[in-house]
Amino acid sequence: MARGGRVDIIYIEYMPQKYQNELNLLRIAIEKTPFSFSRDERSKFETRLAALEANPETKRDEIETVIVEVGKATWPHRKAYEGMFAAYAKEKYEEQFINNLDDDLRVKYENFTRAGGSLHDYRRTREMEQAFTPEEYTRLEDAIFEARKFLDSYMETVIAENSDEYNESVKRYESKQRDCANMIESLKEIARTSEKWAPEIMAKVRKFEEGWSAIERDFDEDQLKHEIEYWQGVIGLE
User: Fold this and answer.
1) From CA 176, how far away is CA 211, in angstroms rounded?
2) Are 237 and 193 contacting, i.e. CB atoms less than 8 angstroms apart?
3) What are the C-alpha distances in Å from 180 to residues 26, 59, 208, 224?
4) Which residue in 21, 112, 200, 223 has its CB near the most CB atoms, within 10 A?
5) Residue 117 exposed, middle or buried by CB count within 10 Å (0-12, 13-18, 19+)
6) What is the DSSP string of 28-96?
7) How big, in percent rounded to 5, are the helix, strand and coil portions of the chain?
8) Is there a contact between 90 and 98 (Cβ–Cβ < 8 Å)?
9) 3-state secondary structure of 142
10) How far apart are CA 171 and CA 166, in angstroms?
11) CA nearest neighbour of 51 among 66, 34, 69
């Protein structure tokens, strides 16, 4: 407070996060959590996101670590959900999405997908930006949003009517995830046996761990097996 009782108002300029893109990706990963995943656990991840957003000293690797943690925790549920979606809801969802597009944009979208394009890339590829104007992209996002509102309700019904199938699928993916996590640990053990090759092997480990994420290429179990066999051979030759 200044002399004479006058209050000095201090204006604090808002500083955007240096790693806002990574924070957006973390938000997307949390939003992609299926409704069957624990709400308490999801809430904890949302709290961690808020803390990272509020801290101007947040580092990129801190955000990326949480992205992987979210992905790993939700992976069995996401894979089970994807299976149910493919079996029971994919055609319905596509129909809803297409019906939400104007005729002109529908034609452009169909040409885009025929050429191998996909809207399911949260980093907005160059091909996507070349195919659609910003205004068209906004209309596509609106159509996706409306289709997903339908999908959320529809999938809840589908899973409720096929709960045994869904729960068994979650259990299978939990078992598969444990097996894959054990293989990752085997790769880490190989890295610990060779100071020379450890940095390269651990880079591979990080890439595989990113595969749990909801926003990166999906986990590749066959490639993991190949890497273990390959590095066992390399280390064995030293």
Assistant:
1) 14
2) no
3) 23, 28, 10, 8
4) 112
5) middle
6) HHHHT--TTS-HHHHHHHHHHHHHHHH-TT--HHHHHHHHHHHHHHHHHHHHHHHHHIIIIIHHHHHHH
7) 75, 0, 25
8) no
9) helix
10) 9
11) 66
Largest separation between any pair of C-alpha atoms in the chain? 82
State the Cα–Cα distance between residues 225 and 26, nearest whole angstrom: 28
Half-sphere exposure of 109 (CA within 13 A, CB side): 21
Which uninterrupted H or E stretch holds 200?
helix 198-210
- For 32-66, the pLDDT digits (tens) are 899 889 999 999 999 999 999 999 899 999 999 99
Report helix, strand or coil for 26: helix
- Alpha-carbon gap, residue 232 to 229, rounded angstroms: 5
**Token code pair at residue 65:** 């670590």
Instruction: Measure the CA–CA gap between 25 and 123, rounded to whole angstroms.
Output: 9
* Threshold 0.85, pTM exceeds: no
Q: pLDDT tens, 68-119?
A: 999 999 999 999 999 999 999 999 999 999 999 999 999 999 988 888 877 7
- Sign for the CA dihedral angle at 164, 165, 168, 169 comes to negative
SS3 106: helix
Q: For the residues of 155-170, what is the DSSP string, one character each?
A: HHHHHHHTHHHHHHHH
